[in-house]
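[Q] Does anyone have a clean structure-token version of this?
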Amino acid sequence: MSSLYRQALKELGAVLDRLDDAAVDRAVETIAAARHVSVYAGGREGLQIRGFAMRLFHLGRSVSVVGDMTTPAIGQGDLFLVACGPGEISTAVALVGVAKKAGAKVLVVTAQPDGRVPQMADEVLVLPAQTMANDQGSDVSILPMGSVFEGGLFLLFEVMVLKLKSRLDVSAEAMRANHTNLE
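[A] Here you go.
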């Protein structure tokens, strides 16, 4: 394996080594308890959270991606799950405000817990990785901009799926049965 692959894996592994697994378990419980989960993230983080939404659907959860025409109104008993690595993007600030006003619970996954978006949240899960908020200067990743956070999100979400699968007692067969046949 090339040294670039090894370095990228080492950097992602270091992020996951610093992750608070108890906080992950709390986030899993929050998701499991929600009546409906609406997810949002911008840019490449948005790609990761859309994949997580798909797996939540496979687990039999009621889930939607903000921006899709079929996203229902959010309210009491619902969860708004936001990935905002750098801690603030204007769209996330606005959407969290709407969700809070509607009575939904807000869970934010971020690398910058002091940012405006996590400060507005009911619950924060810190994924301690480089984002565009700290991608310059010395001692930065070989991966560009927020790639370490985005790669960490993929791995975090996959582990959360495994934890939810166990917590909700969903079989692999049931997940597979929820997969679309319109491909």
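[Q] Thanks! Anything notable?
[A] The chain has a mean pLDDT of 95.
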